[in-house]
Amino acid sequence: MLTLGRACLILALAVSVYGVGASLYGARKGNRAWVASGRRAVYAVAGSLLVAFAVLEAAFLRSDFSFELVAGHSSTTTPLFYRFTAMWSSQEGSLLLWATLLGLWSSLILFLTRNKLREVAPYAAAVLLGFAAFFVSLMVFLETPFARTLGALPAEGVGLNPLLRHPSMMIHPPMLYSGYTLFTIPFAFAIGALVTRRLGAEWIRSTRPFTLAAWLFLGIGVLLGSRWSYTELGWGGYWAWDPVENASLMPWLTGTAFLHSVMLQEKRGMLKVWNVSLVLATGVLAILGTFLVRSGILDSIHAFGASTLGVPFLVLIGVLVAGSVALVVSRSRDLRSEHRLDSVFSRESAFLLNNLVLVGICFVVFWGTFFPLISEAVSGSKASVGPPWFNRYITPLALILVLLSGIGPAIAWRRATLANLRRTMLGPALFAVVVLVALLVGAGVTDKPLALAMFVFAAFVTGTVFQELWRGVKARRAMSDDSVPMAVVSLIRRNRRRYGGYIVHLGIALLFTGIAASSAFQQARDVDLRPGQSARIGSYVVTYVKPTGEVVAASNGRLERIDLGAVLKVSRDGEALATMRSRRSFFPSQAPEFGPISRFFEGEATSEVALDAGVREDVWTVVSPDVRGLLPSVKEGDRVFAAAREGGKLSRAEMDVLLVQALRGLAASYASDPPAATFRLIVSPLVTWIWLGAIVVFLGGLTALWPAPSGATRRVSAAYAARVARELGRA
Amino acid sequence: MLVLAAAVVYVVSAPLRGGRSGRLEAEETAEHAELTAARDAKYSEIRDAELDFRTGKLSRADWKAQDQALRAEAIAILRRLDTLEGREDGGGRPLS
Amino acid sequence: MDPDRKRTLRFTIALSCALLLAGALVYTSFAGASEARSPSQLVGAAKVGETYELTGKVQDGSITKDGVTTTFRVRDRDGNVSVPVTYTGAVPDPFREGREVIVDVRKQGATFVGEKDSLVTKCPSKFSADEQS
After folding, report:
1. Full domain range(s) for residue A697
2. How far apart are CA A652 and CA A628, in angstroms?
3. Which among B20, B44, B68 is the top mutation candidate for probing chain A, defined by the most A β-carbons within 10 Å of its own β-carbon?
């Protein structure tokens, strides 16, 4: 099976190199047969990679430890679901996932455009195959997923890092990688469009859905990572401005900018150079993001250690940047704007400003992320900036962004008069003022002006979106006699991009409200408690009721972990509100130098967070049990078991049974006579709004992405064609 | 394994051997596709302008002016499409 | 004002704002960043009151806990020079002896005090080139 996998990779490499040649030859000679062959090469690459993927997954599922990767990242005690996902917790497996996704999405778009974009598609295919060849080469020559385990076959694998055992964490990489690979598609088509000088409406129409899909997937990936951090890791935050987090955010920011500025090109033929540069930059940032995690050039909770992949990636990024700049410069004549900005008070202006803000945020993130390298180049020593520096610049920019997302929908194209502005902005502005007054009077938020500003702006956006919806529904009903719900549905169906966008804006407003509230008004404490003791946080009283201790077996009966935890009670004003359970799970290390009992305390440990999430606020707590009191018993246990093993009187099975008993005893002793445990307590307002906002953004994006029913388009087109034709006749 | 490689070679070289894809599919020159896309985009703009008017962002006068300008642009595109299609019909085989 | 002048004016204003922002960014990043230091670099040359980003490995046997405060020593990646660190608050899940850590510290007397929530522990073996944990 290992050879089959390796052979598939070599086949994929050979076919992708062939495909690059065939597509380019076919494009230059205008020979459709070669172009078609190049396109089929993409399908073939996707197919080979899928087979390789299946081979590797099958090995993981049946715990085939002859695969070095399986032995190093999975074990028989790993649950089935996580065995499947363990494949991409490794460098090599994640490369295979990336390449496979690239193959699938490339095949999809080339299939969809097989009869369109005749001149551009072959160049795009060549670029995509080039990326595929790069990633497959990495796997064939540098980090192969199909390495054989050296020496004797181990009886048990190392197991999946327990920190990665979270459902979110396992959808997060495929989502992220889908986002990254989907962003390479507009990149490839932009290159093709630049080469063939065909940067018109057709290029936009064909690549926009993929840009939107990439934006959606990447956004979901980023949010899932953030939610995983909040609910699974023991620090209680959802964003740390970590280099790897930033790396996934940057292409998303430029992608958002592009989705807006492309409308300016569509409507007014403006900003062609800017647009194509944004698309190219987004593609490069997507590759940069992929590179950052696995290069080791920046210290991060994700990225660590040096790897052999740094240099090839740098070369690739260098080639991409140089090539993109050269292409844009050489085509600058074809990229001249058809129109200019008519007025500062116009939707064009709002979009331009939105782009500047988004690119500004991206620049801040970029600078802060790469600052260690920049400072090293400048002053010889690595220095880094922390979250306060990021927040200082991003907060005001985010405020402007949210405000703009309310202004954009409410302002007209080309030129908005004062009368128009009054008509569209008055309602939402009044609503925002009402919210402002209510917050000032009711909630006492005067000492956090930035958060207050965000709340007011978000209210403004909400007002704008609902006003647009309401007026649109009224307009629809005036023309068609529908009931209100029907009118809403048909309004959105017939104007998917517009209303999908408005729903996204609403989601963003909710999301930023949640971020502002949970950052500005969070209360956190670290306390030491004995059973029975309480601590006060915010308006809550948290009581450590009792400790818990338990030994957990995996589905195949083998020992998986020891859980030591706590049961807590949360009350407010004397009224009990919730019972929370938190624990720390201790997984055994596989290293041979540890004794059978102490290995449980020398391996990985994960925290199980106790979260009482509410619409108004979250109560979050995690326990850090003190295991020092157990160590003497642990050492004693090791001695006893070592002696028993040497004595040779007990069989392996009997030893295992005694081991379980000993561990159970250990857990019970913790539960019966626990020392004080450390608790981190956090009360964060409106965190749930972040996740709700994200869902709304997702729904809005989906709406915008959904293809319009072709019947409706044809009907509408026919109606307009008829009217225009009538005018033609009159003219 | 060899089966897989053979299958791949077969599929990928099919167009070169004059296989199924030699069949005549709906032809569209690049110019035609571009104009069709531009026409559809223009129709969207016309509808968007009307929705802008009905949701109060444009005054009636402003809308009428924009609508006329957009329709004129649409007519221009349709004219160019007609010329293109006329030439194609008259000329026989479409430009490859 | 004729349209061309208006356009030039707008462009100039936008460019100036961008340059101002970039300038502020660059200045505050150099002024406010914490320099990365290894323990041997920190031992002699640490200035009181300045924050440094300490990177190194947790020395075996050096972790002690007292309530919410953890004390440990950080040594050079390959070497024995180590410095004491006092850290208040919950430590990350992967934190243990022999692991690589990054923590923002400030010199206070004979020890280095860690900034809240700045302790990052690297998960071993995820994407490294060689070893096995």
Report:
1. 421-521+691-730
2. 29
3. B44
